[in-house]
Amino acid sequence: MDLRGLKYFQAVYEQGSVSGAARVCFISQPSISSAIAQLEQQLGVELFVRHPRGVFPTAAADSLYPYVKEMTNGEKVILGLFSNTPAPVPLRLGLMRSLGAKRMSHLLTAITERVEHLELTLVDPNEPCDARVILSSGADSHQEFIPVWTDSYYLALPASWPLAQKELIELQELDGLAFINRSPCEALDRLKGRMTEQGVKFQPRANIRTIEYAWPLVAAGVGAALLPDWQEIRDVPEIQLRPIKCDPIVQTIGLSVRNDRRHNPVIKEVIAACNEQGDLVPAS
């Protein structure tokens, strides 16, 4: 079996398209397609389903990928044995958007200190990766979820607003309140559901995706936002965090790893680094 063809398979799997694989492999698209077709013929299976924007991996490709990745990583180790520089230790880590910059920095520092010669690639949690930092709701039965942090969500209000002077916010007081709408956000979706149940109108003032953009907008007086109780947010004098009188909105964030990767030496170090971080308390 041609190792080069397996490398091209790995590139297509990770990039999600033949064109993307061609770019990272510095080779033409027809060469990639030909190598995949030859590999499919050798194995007697279909590895990818083509669609207008790229390819979807089949179940056979999902089964093949971890073995190919180990083979290509092994090649790097072998080459490293006969070079003057240590072989890099690759790690693809999926990170959710609302982890928080400070918390992410602490985690990545801990991982890099634990794993020598680490070659770290940060990707979206939905992309192929060795481990993912996600919400507990995102893990499935084929993965082990190690809880790390628990975030309690509060209403973040501009300190100058009269509503910010209240210690507890009634759900009805959110009716028509200017909100910073962040999507995707499971916590905010839960609040919207409770507001709908009570006939309370959700009024978006701004629409964003990244949590780090939310509290500067609140501090500027643009609107209110539902935000986690992070110390970096509490330290902003222009913002007041207030609890909402309803069922608490809490989310658990942790590390998700495939069951068959749990005892991989690098993954074990990543798990240890995560266990050092949160102890199920908000980031500080």
TrEMBL record:
Source organism, top-level taxon:
Bacteria
PROSITE patterns under this entry? HTH_LYSR
Pfam families named in the record = HTH_1, LysR_substrate
The answer to keyword Transmembrane helix applying to this record is no
Q: Name the keywords, alphabetized.
A: Activator, DNA-binding, Transcription, Transcription regulation
Give the HTH lysR-type domain ranges.
1-58
Identify its protein family.
Belongs to the LysR transcriptional regulatory family.
Which PANTHER family is this protein grouped with? HYDROGEN PEROXIDE-INDUCIBLE GENES ACTIVATOR, TRANSCRIPTIONAL DUAL REGULATOR HCAR-RELATED
Protein name, per record:
LysR family transcriptional regulator
| Organism this protein belongs to | Shewanella corallii
